[in-house]
Hints:
By secondary structure, the protein is α/β, with parallel strands linked by helices.
Amino acid sequence: MTGTGGKAFCAGADLKKAIPRGQTDNPSRPFKSQGIPSLDDGFELWKPVIAAVDGYCLGAGMTLLSACDIRIASTTSSFGLPEVKRGIVPTLGATQRFPRQLPWSTALEMLLLGDMFGAEDALRYGLINQVVDSSDVMATAMNYATRLTTEVAPLTTRAIKEAAIRSQSLSLEEGIRLERLLSNHVNRTDDAKEGPRAFAEKRPPAYRAQ
């Protein structure tokens, strides 16, 4: 997932267009959808998602980033949740994902102050995986994509991601039961047989998502 190279990954909503909508919304209906069901509903996509950030990543762009699994950013990228400075609550899961993904104090500083910060700070916070030159962002992201599609079993990666995401709303015991259930399902696939067979035969595995 990427945006316009060198300019923005996603700079968030157009506030000029949001003003009239905000004035006409019924304040007695605070629980209606924000308009992006995939993010509102938890973004239940079990395939790995890679973010290639080169430029501004602000507001809803940050929330979109939080729904990605592997995140690459250029040295010139800028991040932030500026909604609070405009009297707006960060939505689409921002107040839920960031406190789960980052240290509490780091997440709340981002949410409550709305300051912008650079790629090196994002790396230090654990928000992104790697910082590279702008010219290397897409190549680095594609390298991750290649590894995910050639080195590891696709059904296994999906099961791992599903277990990791679903378990966030479960107790440890319930999460372990879910992990076992998904593992048992994967163990019955052809790919689960191909991995050990390829290891024994000293060759790369040929996974077919079956």
